[in-house]
Give the backbone structure.
Amino acid sequence: MPTQPSPITYTLRLKFHKTTVLLHVDPLQTLHSLRSDLLTALRQTCPDGTIGGLALLPDTPEEIELAVPRDLNDASKGWVRVLAAGEGSQGVGDVVTARGVRDGGVLAFRFRSGREAGGEDEDGEWDVVLPSYEDAYGVENEGDVGARGEFVG
């Protein structure tokens, strides 16, 4: 069951292509249960079983892989897989905060069948399109993946 928002929950952005799913999660929630919440949200919002006609939703949460940005300040450097398809709960190392995810952070997701799981992790395989500032305002700037600059003053 999805986590209800509260002062202690994190809001995460999960991205696939141009789709962003916002989920409220407990900071100590496992990535395994996060996959289940993501699949539930996708089934509720994509009744035809596809995301924008690009990908068929999987039958089980175990077919979902998750990744974090390689560099929070530069999304063009790609993604690092933190949970492979078919991978189960790993205890303490499987919680959201143990993987460096913060409130407002972003994760990429993709779907893999059991026979494809565990292959080499290539940056190009993560289909994430980050909007640019220029798209909205005509000024060039990089996409936001959740890094917050340090205040110096």
